[in-house]
Amino acid sequence: MDKGGTTYREFLPHPGLSEYIKCFWHTHTAPGINNEYDILPDGYFDMLFSVKGGIVTGISLTGIWAQMVTVSLEGGTGMFGVRFKPAALTGLLKINMKEMLNSSIDIDPEEFNLETPLVTDSLAGDNLDMLTEHLNMRFLSQQSCSADSRIKAFFELVDRSSGTEPVESICREIGLSTRQVCRKVTGLIGIGAKEYSGIARFRDNLASIAEGNDYDGFYDQSHLIKNFKKYTGMTPGQLNPSKNVRILQYSCKDLLLK
After folding, report:
1. Residues 169, 101 share a domain
2. Helix H segments across the chain?
3. Residues 8 and 130 grouped into a single domain
4. Partner of 62 for a Cys bridge, out of 83, 104, 133, 253, CB 3.0 to 4.6 A?
5. What is the maximal distance between C-alpha atoms in the chain?
6. How confident is the model over 18-58, as pLDDT tens digits?
């Protein structure tokens, strides 16, 4: 995607990581151009590497976003990200995101067994293939056999149904009570099971909402509007794909960006 001087690309992870990583992504804004973009709740969290003038200026980790946030991209800056699924917290990363809801923190890449010189050299030289290969190998080696399989299954089932299967039904399917699942999910990502399900439903139906299609995934128009305003601050009618869509993490095919 190239919009307003900003390019955005996504790269699939190694197949062995697909249950934990949604994608790797890279964005760059041309010199002399400052753009603002909206980041919408999508149920994922990101490891971010910021680059300016061939120098890595920061490495950070975001939590789950439960509300829209606007970010500014200064001309000449680039960013590389790893977009993790919440299931990564059950069998890949030894962290929890509860205290990072709607926020981010600076991190030391060595905490995640990443080779700092290789990361910085790859980004400085725009060698994204080398970087994604390094990240794939590192994360493949970090997979844990002691993962909480039932909570991992919860996230997978929510995503598979695009948030339309009732949480209570999923809980029965994985053999845990709704209260147990809510406690565990909140302890991991800072929002409850039903809230995560609502974000997944919003995320997976965003394209059809932008196109003005029917209420797939929602009970009726009122339910759709309430859900949409909760995560964007706008009504579906205020989202004009040809004019005011500035949503960074969705491709032009998803949101008809023009």
Report:
1. no
2. 88-91, 116-124, 128-141, 149-160, 167-174, 178-189, 193-210, 221-232, 252-255
3. yes
4. 104
5. 55
6. 999 999 998 888 887 777 777 889 999 999 998 888 788 88
